[in-house]
Amino acid sequence: MIEQPAFGRRLRMLRVQRGLSQTELAGDEVSASYVSRVESGRRSPNELIAAFFARSLDVPLDALTHPASQDGGEHRSRRLDIAGKLLEARSLRKDGELTVAAELLRGIGAAAGHADEYVLWEATWELADVLRELGDTTAEHRVLADLADTALSQETPRLAARVATAVAENLRRQGRLGEAVRTAEHAVSVTGVLPPTAHERVGTMLALINSYTDSGELENAAGLADTLQETAEDIPSRQLRGQVYWAAGSARFLCGRPEDGIHLHERAFACLRPEVNLAAWARLCRASAALRLEYDLSQDATGHAARLLARARQALELVGRDDDMAELMLAEAHLALREGEPERVLELTTQVCDGGAELPLAGLGQCQLLAARAHALAGNTAAARDSYRLAAETLDRAGAYRKSSEAWRQLSDMLAAGGPGAGPAAATG
């Protein structure tokens, strides 16, 4: 007899143990989405499909429908062993041994049985986090997709929100902005039953603001930032409160209100202390500097941005990932552009493109746009024209339509002005 959700949990356990994806288990017999529904308990297979799954997994049908009961002592011992491995993986992660930690966490997933679903969920979540730190966005997305299909994620709003938020951020880093917006909107809807200051609810709203911002939906981003800012002082976590001020300030910059943006970023700095989370503080330094260079036309903006970038570099050289350093160099290239140093801009953008960091399409387009401005500033009209076109096309593919339009506009302005004659005005606008 097939009983759900027990059958689905055993099916998923055996599939993960054998290292198969849902698509690979489905084969030509059923669809991957059908496997997902069975594993989550939303669909009960008939006897023929259950037998197909058993053959594909090379186990007797009874292993899926009537697993042998476990001795209580053995079961407890296995749970303790899995918990010990999870603690070991966390220690390895803390020590910077991310690859080793990831392998250990994968082993936990293969060893955990259906009765260990809570430990398995936690280990899988930890694995997704480690893969994010390693910069392996593709593998992280696969792990998160599997986690979203678990019964625990689907039955618990807080867990569902955490996974959906992580998926949205992953899609945003990949440059899949339309998908990121839809996923983040779903995450926000899931948390409607939670208090306004609950960590998961605030996190989903931050992910949606970031997705709106990157896709150029600035009015939506600003409106949601205003809503979130109203509850900021009631958020228990100081770090999370800092993230809210960071997002709200960035929205103000993008809407042409740099003074408000600077003020809110200062409030973010007051919450995000380097002694608590050096990486987050450094990323705020980098992001705030980049926005000042782009939107603050005051005389002291360049000096402030230079000091922020110097602090960011000092910290990120210690704790930053490859993508952190790539984004830092893009901000430094923008600083060099503002200071009228096209050669330095091209040196930095070449390093970013050739450095091996897995830049999202939007980041690559921004790199090409900075190179175009540098060529224009140096008077190299032909190279500027090609780089502007390449940047616009890349940004358009990334879904960053506002930035894409900006690249086309700057190309048009340069050509209308007769090329180099537009010089710095076109390059630094």
TrEMBL record:
Classification via SMART domains: HTH_XRE
CDD domains documented for this protein: HTH_XRE
SUPFAM superfamilies: lambda repressor-like DNA-binding domains (SSF47413), TPR-like (SSF48452)
Domain HTH cro/C1-type: 11-64
GO molecular function: DNA binding
Gene3D superfamilies: lambda repressor-like DNA-binding domains, Tetratricopeptide repeat domain
Superkingdom assignment: Bacteria
InterPro entries: Cro/C1-type_HTH, Lambda_DNA-bd_dom_sf, TPR-like_helical_dom_sf
The protein's name: HTH cro/C1-type domain-containing protein
Organism of provenance: Streptomyces alboflavus
